[in-house]
Amino acid sequence: NNVTLRYNGMLTGADNQNLLSKTKAISSLGSKKEYDKLRQYVSTQKFEMYMDVNLFSFNKSSASASKYGAENMAGKNIYYTAENPYSSFSGKSENKLYVTSMTGLDKKLLSFLNNTKQFSVDGFCVDDAGSMIYSDYSDETHNRSNAVNIISTQMSTLANNHNIMVDVGNLYMLKIADTVVDLP
User: Fold this and answer.
1) Cα separation values, 68 from 10, 16, 53, 98, 148, Å
2) Interaxial angle between packed helices 105-116 and 144-158, expressed in degrees from 0 to 180 and rounded to the nearest 10
3) In the list 11, 36, 98, 163, which could disulfide-bond 123, CB 3.0-4.6 Å?
4) What pTM was computed for the model?
5) How confident is the model over 138-172, as pLDDT tens digits?
């Protein structure tokens, strides 16, 4: 009687999401009409539906890392590799993900919300922000404490009329979250 659907891979790039400001729902998953049928079913069953989103991580093919990416103290773009949970389908065992610059995160988030507003959800599952925090030396210097403040402010925007699910759960994210999954 208490099911929560976490719609992972709904956004362009799927398991290797595009830059937040450039992402939108994948049209190949079905039409808006088919999505509305799913949404109606979820609502009728009194389930909740969360759109999985990475606030920071993006694949290099969606945007220029040198233009949008965060940099370390040496001026190199920050990236990490993540295990691909869908490797049995895609054949790719891991994804190389770059992290976005903290500068202008508010504009990137508003662009994302605008690109996905036609897809009604109960909330957003913030995937990467639950498990990572980083300093950014690209445009302006953003140390980790400053980054926490930026992210916390942006989470208020994301949480406007939506619930927030956090994957893993950094301490600063736990106070914002309505639901936490995979808490170690």
Assistant:
1) 22, 16, 17, 9, 19
2) 30
3) 163
4) 0.89
5) 988 899 999 999 999 999 999 999 999 999 888 88
